[in-house]
């Protein structure tokens, strides 16, 4: 369960540089990600979005600069999923229940509170009617929503999503956007990589990347769907 005060920095980057096989993936990136806020990361392919997410998740260390995650922060990561996920021999409920493993331990029986959290997460993404259905029987958009529900069930402090609405139909996109706002309402810091801000509704902060650097978000695709947000800035 998110336990940081609203607007408190959950992760802070300062002058972060990341070199990958001789290529500078991130350069001089400084950023605060705060509790209870939805941050959108936009930019062209190869601009450094996925590298930024991996640094925020603690999966990659900066070549230089600092990435500071508040002690005790629980992180949930929702990567892009392929059609291979349809082969998992799991129902929607089984998959989402795995989101409680960090709290309960793998394969341990769920408590009543865990079952409630799982049911709430499934409902949040609009899949209650499909809870018992195998993943292979779902559409791609429904499977993506199921993985989002698994992340929600973790009740993490920091929720990171790599293009969670890519390829989704309108119903799935609206459900995903609503679920993300539910997470921020509970105090989580949410970071979403996206190509289209309009799919997320209102966001609190936009980080636009180009060639590994934060740049002003000025294009129509960068600004569509944004109302009064903090654009590509560091809140210190």
Summarize the structure in words:
- With 236 residues, the protein is α/β, with parallel strands linked by helices.
- The protein has a single domain (10-217), classed as Rossmann fold, CATH 3.40.50.300.
- It contains 7 helices and 10 strands.
- Helix 4 (112-124) packs antiparallel against helix 5 (140-153) and helix 5 packs parallel to helix 6 (170-185).
- The relative contact order is 0.21.
- GO terms for molecular function: ATP binding; ATP hydrolysis activity.
- Keywords: ATP-binding, Nucleotide-binding, Transport.
- Residues 11-236 form the ABC transporter domain.
The whole-angstrom Rg is 17 Å
Order of helices and strands: EEEHEEHHHHEHEEEHE
- How many domain regions? 1
What is the CATH superfamily classification? P-loop containing nucleotide triphosphate hydrolases
**Helix amount:** 25-40%
Mean pLDDT metric: 86
Report the end-to-end length measured between terminal Cα atoms: 25 Å
Q: Pairing-aware structural class of the strands and helices?
A: alpha/beta
Discrete helix count: 7
Q: Give the biggest sheet.
A: 7 strands, mixed
Overall form: globular
| Uncertain runs | 219-236
């Amino acid at each position: 369960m998110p336990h940081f005060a609203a607007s408190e920095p959950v992760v802070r980057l300062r002058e972060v540089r990341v070199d990958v096989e001789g290529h500078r993936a991130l350069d001089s990136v400084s950023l605060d990600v705060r509790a209870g806020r939805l941050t959108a990361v936009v930019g062209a392919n190869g601009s450094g979005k996925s590298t930024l997410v991996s640094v925020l998740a603690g999966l990659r260390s900066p070549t230089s600069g600092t990435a500071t995650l508040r002690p005790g922060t629980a992180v949930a990561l929702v990567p892009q999923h392929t059609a291979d996920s349809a082969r998992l021999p799991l129902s929607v409920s089984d998959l989402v229940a795995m989101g409680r493993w960090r709290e309960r331990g793998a394969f341990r029986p769920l408590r009543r509170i865990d079952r409630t959290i799982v049911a709430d997460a499934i409902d949040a993404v609009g899949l209650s009617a499909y809870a018992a259905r195998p993943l292979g029987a779902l559409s791609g958009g429904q499977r993506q929503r199921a993985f989002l529900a698994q992340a929600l069930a973790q009740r993490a402090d920091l929720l990171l999503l790599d293009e969670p609405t890519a390829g989704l139909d309108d119903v799935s996109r609206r459900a995903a956007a609503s679920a993300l706002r539910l997470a921020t309402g509970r105090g989580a810091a949410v970071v979403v990589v996206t190509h289209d801000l309009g799919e997320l509704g209102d966001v609190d902060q936009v980080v636009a990347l180009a060639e590994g650097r934060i740049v002003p978000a000025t294009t129509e695709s960068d600004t569509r769907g944004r109302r009064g947000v903090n654009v590509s800035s560091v809140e210190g």
